[in-house]
Amino acid sequence: MTVMFDPLDPEQLADPFPTYRALRTEDPVQRIPVGGGTWVVSRYEDVKNLVRSGDGLMQPPGFTTPTEFAGGPAERIYKGLMVLNDAPVHTRLRKLAEKAMTRGAVERLRADVDAVVEECVDTMLERGEADAITDLAFAVPLRVICGMLGIPEADRTQMLEWTPDFFRIFLPSANDAEGIAACHHACQNFIDYLSEQIEFRRRTPGDDIFSALVRAEDEGDRLNRDELVATVLSLLTGGFDTTMGMISAGVFGLARQPEQLERLSADPAGVAKSAVDEFLRWESPVGVTYRHYRHDIEVAGTTIPAGEPIWLLLLSANHDEAQFDDPDGFDVVRPKNRHVAFGGAHHYCIGNQLARLEGEVVFREIGKRIGSIEVTGDAPRRPNFQFRSFLTLPVKVSPAA
Question: Residue 312 sits in a domain of what CATH number?
Answer without folding.
Answer: 1.10.630.10
